[in-house]
Design goal:
single chain, mainly alpha, 4 helices
Length: 71
C-alpha cells in the first residue's frame, strides 16, 4: 500500500486528471496514513483494502500505463 500510494503521488496531475476513475487521492492518503500514522492504522480496514480494492486498482493502473506510457 505504501508503494502504491508513493507511485500515485508521482503521477503528474494532468495524467491523474485524464483518469479520474482511479482513486488517486485515496491511494496517496492511505500511504500517508501508513507512513505517518502507522500506530493508528486499523488493520481490519487495511486488510479489506488490500483484499478488495487493491486488485481492481492494479488492473486500472495497468490500463492507464498502456495509454500513458511513452513509446
Amino acid at each position: 500500500m505504501e508503494i502504491v500510494g508513493e507511485a500515485a503521488s508521482r503521477v503528474p496531475a494532468e495524467v491523474q486528471d485524464r483518469h479520474p476513475a482511479l482513486p488517486w487521492r485515496e491511494a496517496i492518503g492511505a500511504r500517508n496514513r501508513l507512513i505517518h500514522g502507522y500506530d493508528f492504522v486499523d488493520l481490519d480496514i487495511l486488510w479489506e483494502i488490500a483484499a478488495t480494492d487493491l486488485p481492481q486498482l492494479i488492473s486500472q493502473a495497468e490500463q492507464v500505463l498502456k495509454v500513458e506510457a511513452p513509446e
